[in-house]
Amino acid sequence: MNYDIRLDKFEGPLDLLLHLIRKNEMDIYDIQIAEITAQYLTILDEMKGFNLDVAGEFLLMAATLLHIKSRLLLPAVEDETGNEEEEEDPRAELVRRLLEYQKYSEAAVALDAFPLLERDIFARRFPAPDLTDTPAEEPMEAVGLYELMEAFRALLRENPQAAVHEVTAERLSVTDRINRILFLLSGRESLSFPDLFSARPDRQEIVVTFLAMLELVKLRLLRLMQNGRHGAIWVFPAVSEEDAGAVQLTEDAFGYG
Prior knowledge:
globular
């Protein structure tokens, strides 16, 4: 059974490339195409493994990276005098697109940082007595899909698949895990990412819990936040406890069998 889940954080192939370049601390003008291409294809395979719908633009970018990689492997063309002809770097067009995307992406972040007081957010006019001596904490920011996938990759590496497959009658469903996550959040302001899983989760629990969490984000019942880039991931309820408690999810609610 396939589960097609789309998130607003799924920006596109250029966003994924920028994420990989920043993660590997590469110079955007001197991209290591072979390394980036390998990591890009690995992420696409993992998206398919999680039953996420991979859009055609991601596959087109994969083909573009492979084309650039093949051009870089070709020997230089020599002219009639035996000197190597200077050709445009095959990465030039991709770098131009990345720089343009990065410019607008940073502009969007700057606009989003503008004050929202008295428009979308209303602050208290005086400090709460119990908060006056509280040390300042790092601001939380929304978790992107790629950071979330990296957290799951780390979880899968820490819990490798058993060499011997044992067939059991137990069956986990996405709906059961959705209700389990809502139960864990009841009466709490937040949960750390590892708290969603048992002490030693198997692959089935990891994948089904991942799908359940994405479904709750899609329904705007959860918010995923982290303390800075590559920080710890925290799960927050996006609605009040009364509203979340009123949501009783069944197999028929989403067509899960």
